[in-house]
């Protein structure tokens, strides 16, 4: 495996791991990490890419993105709620105002992107 492919594979595994954590941690979104993992595996490992695309849970997320540039309604709602919860936690922990401003801008931009994506067509 070339160094570039190894780096893409490592990035894919990291993204997949974060996506899996997102299944059980309400503050960590799953969909963006699964999409990143699919992107990285497409450049590094056909076997892992095929497994991810054919997975019963993750496959539909990837397919909706590929076919329609869409994020499902449930995933959008969970992402938005996670972002709100993260910011609320930062407020509760008394994080500095500079960090809060940076976080507010980043989370607002991320939420705007996620919420502006179309929803997949109903089947």
Explain the overall architecture.
With 123 residues, the chain is mainly α. The protein has one domain. 76% of the residues lie in helices and 0% in strands. It contains 6 helices and no strands. The protein has helices at residues 3-24, 31-42, 46-54, 58-68, 73-92, 97-116. Helix 1 (3-24) runs antiparallel to helix 2 and helix 5 (73-92) packs antiparallel against helix 6 (97-116). The longest helix is centred in the first third of the chain and has 22 residues, at 3-24. It is globular, with a radius of gyration of 16 Å. The mean pLDDT is 90.
Topology:
Elements: H1 3-24, H2 31-42, H3 46-54, H4 58-68, H5 73-92, H6 97-116
Q: Give the strand content.
A: under 5%
The low-confidence runs, each spanning 5 or more residues with pLDDT under 50, are none
Radius of gyration: 16 Å
Number of separate helices:
6
Indicate the percent of residues in helices. over 70%
Output the structural class.
Answer: mainly alpha
How many domains, as an integer? 1
Cα(first) to Cα(last) distance is 40 Å
- Give the ordered list of helices and strands: HHHHHH
Main beta-sheet annotation: none
Q: What gross morphology would you assign? A: globular
Q: Based on the structure, what is the oligomeric state of the protein chains?
A: single chain
Count the beta strands.
0
Q: How confident overall, as mean pLDDT?
A: 90
């Amino acid at each position: 495996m070339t160094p570039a492919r190894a780096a893409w594979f490592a990035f894919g595994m990291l993204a997949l791991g974060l996506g899996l954590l997102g299944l059980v941690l309400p503050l960590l979104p799953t969909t963006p990490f699964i999409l990143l993992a699919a992107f990285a595996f497409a450049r590094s490992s056909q076997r892992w890419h095929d497994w991810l695309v054919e997975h019963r849970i993750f496959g539909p997320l990837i397919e909706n993105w590929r076919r329609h540039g869409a994020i499902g309604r449930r995933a959008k709602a969970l992402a938005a709620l996670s972002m709100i919860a993260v910011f609320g936690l930062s407020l509760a922990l008394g994080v500095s105002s500079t960090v809060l401003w940076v976080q507010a801008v980043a989370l607002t931009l991320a939420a705007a992107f996620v919420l502006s994506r179309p929803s997949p067509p109903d089947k």
